[in-house]
Amino acid sequence: MIEANKLTKTFRDRKRGLVRAVDRVSFNCQPGQIFGLLGANGAGKTTTLRMLGTLLEPTRGTATVAGYDVAKHPEDVRRSIGFLSNGTALYGRLTAREMLEYFGRLNGIHNSQLRSRVDELIEQLEIGEFQNGRCDKLSTGQKQRVSIARSIIHRPPVMIFDEPTTGLDVMTSQTIMNFIERCRDDGLTVVFSTHIMSEVERLCDEVAIVHHGKIATEGTVSEIKAQTGEDVLENAFLKIAHQLDAQAEAELTR
């Protein structure tokens, strides 16, 4: 389970001064559920996920992942999550199999247990044909399959996906989305950020629209459409964003 409570992150920028990238974001995500963060680029989605993954420390607010506080027990959180983005982050000189074995050892898996787990993932994700190929020679789709395997080598109960399909072709995107659905079916807790409406409609049980670092609204896709009176999610998203922008502009001119 993931619980975020008023998560806030501020940065100091030379030109803009104090920037509030995430502003009091709160939500819960349960096992067997995909919770989506939907927003434009720069909305604060990635910063939120990086705080959940202990890559960034919250300025204020709290969060627990799999029962562990992200600030007090970061190592326990890292052992409990898999993190997949659109960047493959593979070591080019290692083969696909060597890559999985390396990350398995980093996560404390050794000997026969490691070999069995690597073999299982190679079969499950159809990596066998290129398992002995160096990562820097693999296609984009092949690299992403290895990245998926790397992220779940230690059987984490929580998966975090940060815009994992951005820039990928249709076939590779389908592989990613099928994997996300399988994570939910296997009972994992899944948080998924995107700016692609069709992915939200296909995958998400609950979704929060993030705009300028804040959660503007939250609910199922059907509930968000009903709130705005729109039949299309993209139109609902745009209406909410325009309303918030208009409110912010009115406050500045007071």
From TrEMBL:
- The superkingdom listed in its UniProt entry is Bacteria
Entries under InterPro entries matching the protein: AAA+_ATPase, ABC_transporter-like_ATP-bd, ABC_transporter_ATP-binding, P-loop_NTPase
What keywords are annotated for this sequence in UniProt?
A: ATP-binding, Nodulation, Nucleotide-binding, Transport
| GO MF term set | ATP binding; ATP hydrolysis activity
Keyword Coiled coil listed? The answer is no
Under Pfam families, the record lists: ABC_tran
Q: Which residues cross the membrane?
A: none
Show the SMART domains listed in the entry: AAA (SM00382)
- What sequence ranges are listed for the domain ABC transporter? 2-237
This protein's record includes keyword Nucleotide-binding: yes
Family the UniProt entry places it in: Belongs to the ABC transporter superfamily.
Q: What is this protein called?
A: ATP-binding cassette domain-containing protein
Organism lineage string: Bacteria, Pseudomonadati, Verrucomicrobiota, Opitutia, Puniceicoccales
